[in-house]
Amino acid sequence: MTLLSKPSFQIEDVRHTINSYIRDLSDELYTLNQLIHDEPEKAFHEFKAQTCISDFLESQGHSVKRGAYNLPTSFESVHPMAEDQFYQNSTTETAGQSSIAIVDLIAEFRGTSARASANPWDGVNALDALVASYNNISMLRQQIKPDERIHGFILQAPKITNSIPEYTKVKFSIRRSKINALKKLSEHVRHCLEAGGLATGCEVEITEDLAYADLWVNDPLCSLFKVHMDSLGIPLSPGSKHDNISGSTDMGNVSHAIPGLHAIIGIETSPETFPHNHAFAEAAGTREAHLKILEAAKGKALMAWSTIFDDGIFTEIQRHFEKMGEKNSEDKPNL
């Protein structure tokens, strides 16, 4: 069943109200956009962005809890009309793109320092351990499957040449299409790291971050979003969970807990521009990109309205989610 009884007004009225509301907020939202865009912050250090967004939401009457879920830069926002009435949800933004699972391994190698010129034989070289491990993983890559990815970088390395390094640190990200299959690949990488320490006599400490699960695409929810975006004059391709996807997102974990979608909205860029480069970052801060995202916000608001007030749609979305859970029962991560 849905969460509230269906009101008397029609979808055309809702669309007009949503369009007007978002249009009226456009300038404020663009100012917020620029504040965040002009002062980029690293992941998990988005303190200025958290403050800007939380302040804005509070100005709109939302109840905001800053530092929610034991994460200093997170926040939880609840609209005053939502309290005790709505099921709280969370989705990110083709309609219905999938993503793959990911886990990070951080390895620290500890050896013994010694003078490189006088008595190197008394040292245990932590840099050699790191290099050996890196080479092990590079050789592993020729055996991995097309849906698997391994990439890493050195977090800490020696800064001088006249001493045998006693400490190094490296991080590897491992990706695969399914969370359960990811465990096997991450074990191979772990063995490569351990072997580097064993070969050089270094101690190895490996830390594993919480894995990001593969994304469960809720087809009815994606179709609903597409219908509403089409009604706004922005046609979307349906997307496919069978596309050759190599990216990952924490939205995957959310989609294992509640129905969700991960839509992709295009912005104007040059043909050679792609995500994660400087040209894309610049394009994301333009007024044109802002207007594209406002249209996506309208589509998501309409999608939410339909889900809340239409029994048939709500039931279809929930049933699809439950079937995904049954199909992937052995693949569900610990959330």
TrEMBL record:
InterPro entries: Bact_exopeptidase_dim_dom (IPR036264), Peptidase_M20/M20A_hydrolases (IPR052030), Peptidase_M20_dimer (IPR011650)
Gene3D superfamilies: 3.30.70.360, Zn peptidases
MF terms (GO), sorted A to Z: dipeptidase activity
Transmembrane spans: none
Boundaries of every Peptidase M20 dimerisation domain copy: 107-195
Protein name according to UniProt: Amidohydrolase
